[in-house]
Amino acid sequence: MVQIKSVxxxxxxxxxxxxxxxxxxxxxxxxEVGVSKRAPGGINYTQNYNGAAAQFQSNQNAGTFSAxxxxxxxxxxxxxxxxxxxxxxxxxxxxxxGSSGSYLAVYGWVNSPQAEYYVVENYGGYNPCSxxxxxxxxxxxxxxxxxxxxxxxxxxxxxxxxxxxxxWSVRQSKRSSGTVTVGNHFNFWAQHGFGNSYxxxxxxxxxxxxxxxxxxxxx
Length: 219
Fold this sequence. Notes:
This protein is mainly β. The longest helix is centred in the N-terminal third of the chain and has 10 residues, at 2-11. Mean pLDDT is 86; it is low at 1-37. The chain is built from 2 helices and 13 strands.
C-alpha cells in the first residue's frame, strides 16, 4: 500500500484528470513500421508512443528494444505484430523499474468491441488491478494471474476519443523472461465480453512515473 501511494503522489495533479480508477494510465495509438521478413517470429510492428522521452531504441530484425525513463511522461514502447493473435510470445532481458509506475507486458487492442489489454509479466510500484474490478484469477505459464477489468470513458484510443474496456492479467510471480501463452488470457477474458477482432499486439514497456530501464528481446 505504501508503494502504491508513493506512485500516486508522484503522478500529482495530472492523474486526477483520468476517469476512475484514476491511477490506471491511458494509452494512445502505436506507430506501425515496415515489415521485415528476417524479424524473429514474424515481428512487423514497432510501438513508439512518446519513445523520445525514454531514449527508446529498437531493432526489428533482431527483435530487440530498450528504454530508459525518468519522469511523469506516459511512454509505451516495444515490438510485436500488426495483427494480434492467440500466439505464444517469448521474451527475455532486463527490466529494472524500481518503484516507478511501469509495466512489462503483452499489450494490444481489439477492434470490436473495442478493448485495450495487458498481460503484465512484471511491474514497478503499482499493481494495475489494485484499482479495477476483479474478474478472478487464472493459472498459466507457471503462475497465477490476477485478472481485472475497467471501463475508460471518452479517453484516447486507436480510433480517437472513445469509450472502451480494459482487460488486465497481472502475474503474481513477477518475471523478466519466459513465454506468455496469450490464448489462455484471451479465452478467460472472452467469458467477460472480450472479442477477437484483433488490432496490433506487442511486448511492451509502459512507464508513467519515476525512473527505470529495460532491454528486451522478443520472438
